[in-house]
Amino acid sequence: MEGSLSVLQRHPGLSVAAFSLVFRAVHKLLRALPLPKGVCRDEFRVWKWRNLSVSLVHSMLTGPWAVTCVLLSPEMLDNMYSSYTPLSYLLICTSTGYFVQDAGDIILTGHARGSWEFLLHHALVIWCFLYTLFTRHYVAGAVVALFVEVNSVFLHTRLLLKLAGAQSSRLYGLNRLINLFTYVLFRLSAQAYLTWYILRNYSWLDHAGYFLSSMMLMNIMILVYFYRLLRADFLPRGKGHLAHNGMQHGSSKKFLSD
């Protein structure tokens, strides 16, 4: 592992590019899987299904990986500036490669306008992660930030089930409860801890102003989406409203819907 880390640290840009190609290969492999009937209605739904499927693979890999890194080296929670391990550095290389690939997929397929929220999020993450890889500072902070991917497993599953028209299924009902629980535990709590850490150590952290402003912007996005999630899954407003939402979801070219 030490030898592999040395190679990654010498060429972080090439390492990110390599992992980006790996996730592109995953995208190609997933194209061979059959699509639900409801997804095949139009080209946008097909693209969205495949894009979310790759995102789900990334979340299933990096979420547990991030938690494992902290369990093996809990000191990273106290020193998120300079503490890291070979396993955690490899995690950030892998995840950065995914975000680069996903941003490229959104832009090159012509869906940037309807996916601007995702692109803004990806731009913030990519810049912060590249900084950690080239400077080897805040690697532990990036690992804690990837705790959100535990929730993303259920968040992406939710969107896939909606695309397949399975909102009334038991699986969707169970997933929405787990999604809510993990949203609070792994997304909101991780963001709150990172924000608190930066504020507490603001006086001596390098580029603390940039990281704090980026964190605040992400906090706003996460809270807005949390409200939209609660409104859609736990505050129903009648069958007419649900039917309207279903039609809207099917015809909209917007990636991030309720």
Automatic annotation (TrEMBL):
GO biological process: membrane assembly; phospholipid homeostasis; plasma membrane organization; regulation of membrane lipid distribution
Positions of transmembrane segments: 140-160, 180-199, 211-230
Keyword Transmembrane among record annotations: yes
Main location: membrane
Cell compartments where the protein resides: Membrane
GO cellular component: plasma membrane
InterPro entries per the UniProt record, alphabetical: TLC-dom, TLCD
Family annotation (Pfam families): TRAM_LAG1_CLN8
Membrane topology of this protein: Multi-pass membrane protein
PANTHER family membership: CT120 PROTEIN, TLC DOMAIN-CONTAINING PROTEIN 1
Listed name of the protein: TLC domain containing 1
Organism this protein belongs to: Scleropages formosus (Asian bonytongue)
Phylogenetic classification of the source organism: Eukaryota, Metazoa, Chordata, Craniata, Vertebrata
Name of encoding gene: TLCD1
